Amino acid sequence: MKEKVLVIDDERPTLKMFTLLLSAYGYQVLTAENGREGVETFLRESPGLVLTDIKMPIMDGIEALKAIKKLNPNTEVIVITGHGDMDLAIQALNLDATDFINKPLKREALEKALTRARERISITRNEEGQVVLEEKDRVAVIGVRGNVSSMTLPHLSETFAQAAALGKELILIDFEKNASINGAGITGLTELLRENRGGARIVLAGLSSNFRTVFETLGITKLAEIFDNGEEALASR
Q: What pLDDT was estimated at residue 104?
């Protein structure tokens, strides 16, 4: 059975483009021209993945996001923002959106967002460990999979405390390439980093370019360096 994806956008050419692309990727595509219609379609069809524009008449994407997350908190919601509109992207992440892509839409960005979404859905369904600790020579590595949210924060905090107790000179928080982090996750991670000031050096790795931009905008890069991947982070010791 094909995976269902719901696309909410008030521009019909955009809906047509998404329908063509997503159908080619093997999805069953549902469409809605405003947030209210989108929520009604979500109630009727229960798709696991939703892509929604933000600025729409009748009900905008932020209100649709709130309604969909209230109906099913595990739904993957990717918001579509205007180029460089980080305030809206951060607002959406704070409301539990799991990812965002910018307009004008690039096929590569869409493919990466869909890949991340599929991976997170698979992790949720299989209930695999999302946060794991690995001890290396002079480094404690915290591997992060899936979506970091309020539900995963207690485990992340516990694992971080275990990593700090090892007394290593470096703690690497290594996000797998398809991981995401919503507003609650960002807030919790920021608090962990602030509480560790004066402790071990902390570095982050593996975040997508979108989330790196969010971290830079919020000043998190002042608390921890960010590297493209774990190998690069380890080489920086």
A: 83
